[in-house]
């Protein structure tokens, strides 16, 4: 297909068409790491939409704006986002997207931005563009994809690119569409401690969907694990466990994202079991090694 690629067909060599997120997820699938099925609306789709609707000239005008005048930048950015979100998709792009979506055959998907400027050696660009969860039908999907493209021109994303000298016109956006995991527990894992820079695994986990951990809405539990060392029984050594109180969680209930107040018992209990922490640490080591 010209505008859509299955995740399993992608690798780190596909950064220019799949963006950082799409390319790395494809690489993980090739390494036999469990990743939810999905596909990527690759950058030629974004480019065709931008070039066929006169949006390209509006993007180019960003280079001439005085970035010290935030009100002016905000106004131009909002105009760009509105124009992209309201544009009609070319028929061939829409057909490919819907064909891939129907083949996924699932209740709901996550729609995630994947910019070609992500995960660079000098800047991560993480969190600059949008993600949409619990997308449940074709109309929602097509709109979410366009809103991901539009989020390339979130004001914060524009300023972030400016600060690193990254071209607005040359940066393109792919969109990852994945089966949504209806998780009871979720979180983030680092294979180097992001605070101390020690060579150890740090896992942050919370009850419910992971969006609350990623956006910093709640304080998750934290687990620190020795890397590549095991005890006499062959289990990875957990150096530290910090349990934090979590008053509420986000769950997918019958297709709706529901904010649920937790009982005192659930709010104060440890999220991950010892076996879960050790299993995650093993995945972290495998991913880092790959």
Please describe the structure with a list of short key phrases separated by commas or semicolons:
globular; Dna Ligase, domain 1; 4-stranded antiparallel beta sheet; D-amino Acid Aminotransferase, Chain A, domain 1; alpha+beta; 2 domains; 11 strands; 10 helices; 290 residues
Overview of this structure, please?
The chain is α+β, with helices and mostly antiparallel strands. The protein folds into 2 domains: about 180 residues, Dna Ligase, domain 1 (2-Layer Sandwich); about 100 residues, ATP-grasp fold, B domain (D-amino Acid Aminotransferase, Chain A, domain 1, 2-Layer Sandwich). About 40% of the residues lie in helices and about 25% in strands. The chain has 10 helices and 11 strands. It has a 5-stranded antiparallel beta sheet. Strands 6-7-8-9 form a 4-stranded antiparallel beta sheet. Strands 10-11 form a two-stranded antiparallel ribbon. It starts with a strand and ends with a helix.
User: How many domain regions?
Assistant: 2
Overall form: globular
Which class do the helix and strand fractions yield? Answer: alpha+beta
CATH overall fold name of the largest domain: Dna Ligase, domain 1
* Biggest sheet architecture: 5 strands, antiparallel
Ends distance? 28 Å
Approximate strand percentage: 15-25%
């Amino acid at each position: 297909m010209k505008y859509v690629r299955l995740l399993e067909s992608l690798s780190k060599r596909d950064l220019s068409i799949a963006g950082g997120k799409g390319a790395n997820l494809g690489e993980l699938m090739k390494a036999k790491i469990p990743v939810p099925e999905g596909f990527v609306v690759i950058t030629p789709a974004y480019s065709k939409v931008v070039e066929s609707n006169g949006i390209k000239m509006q993007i180019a005008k960003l280079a001439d704006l005085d970035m010290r005048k935030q009100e002016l930048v905000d106004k131009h950015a909002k105009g760009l986002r509105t124009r992209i979100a309201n544009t009609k998709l070319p028929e061939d792009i829409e057909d490919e997207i819907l064909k891939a979506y129907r083949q996924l055959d699932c209740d709901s998907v996550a729609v995630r931005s994947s910019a070609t400027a992500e995960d660079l050696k000098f800047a991560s660009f993480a969190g600059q563009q949008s993600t949409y969860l619990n997308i449940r039908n074709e109309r929602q999907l097509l709109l979410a994809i366009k809103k991901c493209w539009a989020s390339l021109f979130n004001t914060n994303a524009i300023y972030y690119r400016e600060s690193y000298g990254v071209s607005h016109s040359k940066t393109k956006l792919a969109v990852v569409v994945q089966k949504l995991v209806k998780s009871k527990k979720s979180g983030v894992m680092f294979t180097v401690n992001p605070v101390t820079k020690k060579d150890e695994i740090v896992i942050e986990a919370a009850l419910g969907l992971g969006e609350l951990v990623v956006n910093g809405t709640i304080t998750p539990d934290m687990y620190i694990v020795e890397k590549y060392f095991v005890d006499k029984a062959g289990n990875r050594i957990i150096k530290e466990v910090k349990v934090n109180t979590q008053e509420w969680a986000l769950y997918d209930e019958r297709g709706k994202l529901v904010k649920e107040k937790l009982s005192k018992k659930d709010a104060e209990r440890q999220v991950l079991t010892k076996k879960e922490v050790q299993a995650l640490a093993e995945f972290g080591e495998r991913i880092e090694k790959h």
